[in-house]
Write a structure and sequence with these properties.
The protein is an all-alpha fold. It is 25% helix and 0% strand.
């Protein structure tokens, strides 16, 4: 994935790691919107930042985000 494409999934306040660093973006699938909402809410209750990036809803897709629970 190019840096430009990757940046589209990140909060605009964040910078993309340089090539000498490792960074990861994980995508989890779920059976329903409720399952996704439950996962994000659980991450928020555990110290994660909920929805730092918002995505437009596309046909057949629903997405939410959360940031690293330990802030690293």
């Amino acid at each position: 994935m190019t840096h430009e494409r990757f940046a589209g999934f990140c909060p605009t306040s964040n910078t993309i790691a340089p090539n000498s660093t490792t960074e990861v973006l994980l995508c989890l699938s779920a059976s329903s919107k409720a399952d996704i909402d439950e996962t994000v809410e659980s991450a928020g209750k555990s110290g994660g930042k909920m929805d730092p990036t918002s995505f437009p809803e596309n046909p057949g897709m629903y997405g939410r985000t959360f940031e690293d629970l330990d802030g690293q």
